[in-house]
Each structure stands twice: as structure tokens, then as C-alpha cells.
Please model this.
Amino acid sequence: MRRALLLAAMLVGPAAGAVQAQVKPALTITAPAPDQAARTGPVVVASHMLSGRKLRELLDSGFPARLHITVELWSTGGWANHLERVTEWDVVVRWLAIEQVYEVTQLAANRPFSLGKFAQFNDAEAAVARPVRAPIVAVVGGRRSYYQATLTVETLSLSDLDEVERWLRGELRPAVRGQRNPGTVLGRGLKTVATRLLGGERREYVERTGVFETVDGGR
Model:
């Protein structure tokens, strides 16, 4: 009986690990109902974006992970689709060795918003996966529309970490005023950094909603 239980444990263990290993990053974007589309934006969810042994090792070694999300509103019709509006934000995840916690920060509208500090990696990843309603709406009476979300995952270098620290303290805010978009400071040269640190790959995910037509739902 004991041998049978041991054999069962040996068989179930790898299977359970295999199931866990099959969890893959997933990006979803959900459009509001047509009668709400003129007043509220789509909901974006980025699940399991920190998965992968190499990315986890880099994060635990002090290299912050940066997720850049862009949401676009497109209209259809005619010879080609037209880009109507764009909004974007960043989420930065870093390991604070002194506190032994993962810190998750959202950078939007040129301001940092803390999403919390977490002792467990899974809790930090869950914070990243919180639904975010994008501040972008369609126009009533316009052409048929759809939303598209693009998410890139990058690992920052140690020199970029200094910029993150200064950004979170507010010291870099004057540098991004005017022509520079929020997140530009964190984005300079990161494509090259990400390609090197992630083994020649730059993770990118793209999802879009179905086409909808905005109607006046009243106020």
C-alpha cells in the first residue's frame, strides 16, 4: 500500500507541475456596452505577465520589470481603418531586497500610483493583473469602432533603475513635460536592453475587441 501511495505521488507531482507550467501570459480587452461606450472605456486585464523562469530570475536579481500598455481606438469604414485616440500607461515591478517585498507601481498621466507591496510573488503578479479601465471613449454617431491593446514586457537595466527611483520620487517630472509623453523616460533604449536581457526576445501581446457602434444611452 505504501509503495502504491509513493508511486501515485511520483506520478501526480510532475503532472501538477506540468499543469502549473502551462499557465501562459494572457492579455484581454473588453469593450463597454454600445450604450455606455460614449461615457466609459474598455477594461484591460494582463494576466500572468511575469511568468517564465528567466524573467523571474532577473526580477529577483534586482532588474525591474516594465509593462507598457497602449490602448487605441480605431474606426472602420472607407478604404482603411483610422486611428482616432490613444492612451498609454506603465506598470513597474521591482524587488526591494531590504524589505523583502515586491513593489508594484503604475505610472499614468505623469504620476506614479502604488499598487502595493507584496511578500509573495503570486500576489505581486495578481496586482499586475487587476482590471484597468482605459480612459478612452468612443464618439456617439461616429463610425463603427474597435479597441486594440498592445502590451510589451521589458526588463530594465541597473542604470535604468536609477531613473525609476528618481521618477518615483518626482524628480523627473519636469523632464517629461511638453513634447515628451509619460513613460518616455523609462522607454529610452529599453528595447535594446530587453532584447539582451530576455535572451533575444521582446515580449509583446496584442488583442482587440469586436467592432461596435456607439449609441446614445442617455445620461
